[in-house]
Design a protein that fits this description.
The complex is a heterodimer of chains A (105) and B (102). Chain A is mainly alpha-helical. Chain A contains 3 helices and no strands. Classes of the chains: A mainly alpha (105), B mainly beta (102). Chain A binds chain B through residues 10, 12, 14-22, 24-26, 28, 31, 34, 37-38, 48-49, 52, 55, 58-59, 71, 80, 88-90, and chain B through 1-2, 5-8, 10, 26-29, 32, 35, 39-47, 49-52, 55, 57-60, 62, 64, 98, 101-102. Chain B: Keywords: Membrane, Transmembrane, Transmembrane helix.
Chain lengths: 105, 102
């Protein structure tokens, strides 16, 4: 598949994800959150920015749940390691929530 | 998506056979030059994933485009970045050649 025109072109080098792999959600425990997120995207012309609250809710669902036991009978792993949502790019939404709470008090 | 803003995307995989399959996936980004700006925070790739017979699962990818993308004049005409995954059946003891990963 080589052509003479590929001088100096690099092959694509995949990089691993920063926080590793998501375990599979075999039981679909967070499917409802995913569907809610996808509905939002469809309703908003697939503008990712419009649906960040629901994306956040999906990730929170993963952090709250445990999947099936690991292979070899290991104890269940969380569907996502706990991480403050501010660190996942949702700081502005979390700040808004904190402000709304403060106002209610 | 907006560069710098985290985003979520879903793929779906189904095992149409009557045997469990263990797969590993790897990804590709087009256009090639945009790949350096594509940052995966978490995804389903590079680790073995088991799909039971007839099982269908959602596969999420949580990512962001590096904000420097917006500063790169070579990216000025890039309006569409396509992320694709290929699922390979894992063979016993197979490892992907990823220097520095694990």
């Amino acid at each position: 598949m080589s052509t003479a025109m590929n001088f100096g072109s690099k092959s694509f080098k995949p990089r691993p994800p920063d926080k590793g792999a998501f375990p599979l959600d075999h039981f679909g425990e967070c499917s409802a959150f995913k569907e809610s997120f996808m509905d939002c995207l469809r309703d908003n012309g697939y503008e990712s920015g419009a649906c960040r609250q629901r994306a956040m809710a999906y990730l929170q669902c993963r952090m709250d749940r445990q999947g099936p036991a690991g292979r070899g009978g290991r104890s269940p792993v969380q569907l996502m390691a706990n991480e403050p949502l501010e660190k996942l790019g949702f700081k502005d939404i979390m700040d808004e929530k904190a402000e709304a709470k403060a106002e209610k008090l | 998506v907006v560069p710098g803003e985290t985003a979520l995307a879903f793929y779906k995989a189904k095992n149409p056979t009557d045997k469990p399959i263990i797969g590993i996936s790897t990804y590709n980004v087009i256009p090639f030059e945009a790949g350096q700006y594509f940052n995966k925070i978490q995804c389903f790739c590079f680790e073995e994933q088991r799909l039971n017979p007839q099982e269908e699962v959602d596969m999420p990818v949580f990512f962001y485009i590096d904000p420097e993308f917006a500063e790169d004049p070579k990216m000025a005409n890039v309006n569409l970045i396509t992320l694709s995954y290929t699922f390979f059946e894992a063979k016993e003891g197979q490892k992907f050649p990823l220097p520095g990963y694990q």
